[in-house]
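Case study 2.
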Amino acid sequence: GTELLYAGRPGEGSRVASEQMALLQSIGDPNLTVGLAFGAFANWFNSGEFGEILRWSQVVIDLAGGDRAM
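Prediction:
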């Protein structure tokens, strides 16, 4: 996804970011989801998909469960 962001292809980057987050969530490892969410957020920000950022931000907050180091 990040390479699409830098290549100026925000639509495709946003789609890949959504797929990435769905796959991470299906794996069920909170550390992976929290740790790799930033790339998706950057893609969504670049394409103006703030609803996705808000939705997944809450998921990340919930998964972190107050652990600031996560």
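The chain has a mean pLDDT of 91.
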